[in-house]
């Protein structure tokens, strides 16, 4: 069983880590489109084109299942990817993200803040999805684009003063207005900086949807994997521009090759 996972860069590694814990016997190809990161500042048409190229690469590598470990691609290109890869099953991250917020917000009526790329926010995939399921009168849903975060994370500045200051600017209006709330990391890069987001939003619950994504894939594959005696190998890493990787990610990749 070979699972292909892709993202614009290193963000999808947060999803891959959850997948490997949940499905340790699968074999993985991780594709990071580091030559084209960030996706979140690009037009919808460009995101669709780049996402389809990633999906096609994984199809050519004969994967059995694809996980679009990128909120921007999932918001804007999931239908196109599914059509292009049919009959290979494709899971995105937006629906599990919505479910993770719902699980957290059951009976609390706390405000919900989606932190995401500009393209994801523009698509309103989260806003529309959540407002349909929550009573938006009682539980407001906000979407905040954070375009400066992905370049900082790709640079490896995950605990840098500039990062902390940038997050503080993005969340200030919500923190000033509400002492409690639920903030979803609506970009797979953001779990790399979860601690920094938590310290910028004291009193708020910060939700990382990576596990919810892994559970969705488990639901689709568990039986098949339980029946497979095959032992999974470690991850095959593919980056469209390997030179663009921060040292912290190189270390992580070496560790996972052991
Ligand atoms: N990690 C991606 C996401 O979840 C994309 C970030 C970007 O390339 O802008 O949205």
- C-alpha geometry: globular
Strand content: 15-25%
The largest sheet has its strands arranged as 4-3-1-2-9
Write out the distinct hetero groups bound to the structure. Answer: D-glutamic acid
Order of helices and strands: EHEHEHEHEHHEHHEHEHEH
Number of helices: 11
Specify the biggest β-sheet. 5 strands, parallel
**Sheet/helix structural class:** alpha/beta
Radius of gyration: 18 Å
Low-confidence stretches: none
E-strand count: 9
> What's the overall average pLDDT, rounded?
92
Distance between the termini: 21 Å
Helix content: 40-55%
Describe this structure in words.
With 258 residues, the chain is α/β, with parallel strands linked by helices. Helix content is 50%, strand content 16%. It has helices spanning 13-22, 44-60, 71-85, 94-105, 118-123, 125-133, 149-154, 161-177, 194-200, 210-227, 247-257, and strands at 2-7, 27-32, 65-68, 90-91, 112-116, 141-145, 181-185, 204-207, 236-239. The strands form two sheets. A five-stranded parallel beta sheet has the order 4-3-1-2-9, sandwiched between helices. It has a four-stranded parallel beta sheet with strand order 6-5-7-8, with helices on both faces. Helix 1 packs across helix 10 (210-227) and helix 4 (94-105) runs parallel beside helix 6. D-glutamic acid is lined by residues 7-9, 11, 37-40, 70-72, 117, 120, 150, 187-189.
